Amino acid sequence: MDASPRERDGTAPDGQRWRAAGDRIETLLEASSAGGAVARERAEELVREVAGLYGAGLTRVVELLDAGTVELLARDDLVASLLLVHGLHPHDVEARVRTALDSVRPYLGSHGGDVTLVGIVDGVVRLELTGSCRSCPSSSVTLELAVEDAVRAAAPEIEAIEAVAAQPEPAGLISADSLFSRVRSGDNAAGSWVAAPELAELVPGEVGGFSISGVPVLACRVGEQLFAYRDHCPACGHSLAGAALHRRAGYPVGDAVLRCPTCRAHFDVVRAGARLDGDGHLEPLPVLVRSGELSVAVPVGVAG
Question: Residue ranges of the Rieske domain (predicted)?
Fold first, then answer.
């Protein structure tokens, strides 16, 4: 894989450049195989020696820092990944997984659901999930993307993620087994994360339309929280361009209702886009900060 011009000249976002670095290293190692097994072994040995040298230096740096400073460094995605590689991260795998789950809990909560860490045994993370999908096929896909991506980013050393349902799930809730069926089968076609830094420009109460990886997206900010949906009204089938947020009379601050400018259908933005005056709901898309970049999960092959 050749580096893009933006990656070579250093103008690409840090998260993008460093994520691509691992791919380039692997590509170079594969290229060395053309010289035979011995050439490949020597290339791998060179990588190990360089990594060991920088690891020793990083260990020395961490030893000279106080705990508070190390904690601040661990909050940076790139530095945290280096600390993990060299076994220097201040938090164990369970603490990191719990923090990752906390980061996606607001999104799960917008679906009327939650996630609980059952335990981590032999590298397998076991989670208990609930979440109202309201019959929308995209909800289970995007929930899967949000949870799996957050956990694997925080704890890359884990072997697998399993979802359990300790008690029978009421009608209307996503089956935990169904939710993570793609994780177990290794199917990576559920969707992908796309950097969308432009969403950060939205101010509280503002609604904006965006095209993300060719998908029309409607995003809005309620307080400090960002919400993103496919730009498609399930009631009339039209775009939601021109829609604005409203607060219902008598409801607390944080209530946010989106009204379709075409058919006047009302949707609860904070609670998975549920329609308030009829059946149906908007199609939610997770919004998370990944490798320092605001990103949106765009599902693949899911009909609206």
Answer: 194-296
- Which of 83, 13, 3, 1 has the alpha carbon at shortest distance from 295? 13
- pLDDT single digits (tens) 38-52: 888 888 888 888 888
pLDDT digits 0-9 by tens, 82-130: 888 888 888 899 999 998 888 888 777 766 677 888 899 988 998 887 7
* CA 287 and chain centroid, separation: 7
CA contacts within 13 A on the Cβ side of 193: 23
The 8-class DSSP code of residue 169 comes to P
List the domain boundaries for the chain: 5-85, 93-188, 195-299
Q: What is the pLDDT of residues 207-250, one digit of tens each?
A: 999 999 888 999 999 888 888 999 999 999 999 999 989 888 77
d(CA 124, CA 294) in angstroms, rounded, equals: 28
Q: CB 163: neighbour CB atoms within 10 A?
A: 24
Quick one: angle between helices 67-74 and 77-85, nearest 10? 110
Neighbour count for residue 43 (Cβ, 10 Å)? 18
The whole-angstrom distance between residue 216's C-alpha and the CA centroid of its chain comes to 19
| Integer Cα distance of 206 and 92 in angstroms | 39
CATH superfamily label, 195-299? Rieske [2Fe-2S] iron-sulphur domain (2.102.10.10)
**Alpha-carbon span 233 to 257, nearest angstrom:** 14
Beta bridge partners, 216, equal 211
Angstrom distance (rounded) from CA 207 to CA 129? 30
Concatenated DSSP letters for 111-154? TT-EEEEEEEETTEEEEEEE-B-TT-HHHHHHHHHHHHHHHHHH
Contact 83, 89 (CB under 8 A): yes
For residue 29, what pLDDT is reported? 76
Determine whether domain 93-188 maps to CATH 3.40.250.10. Answer: no
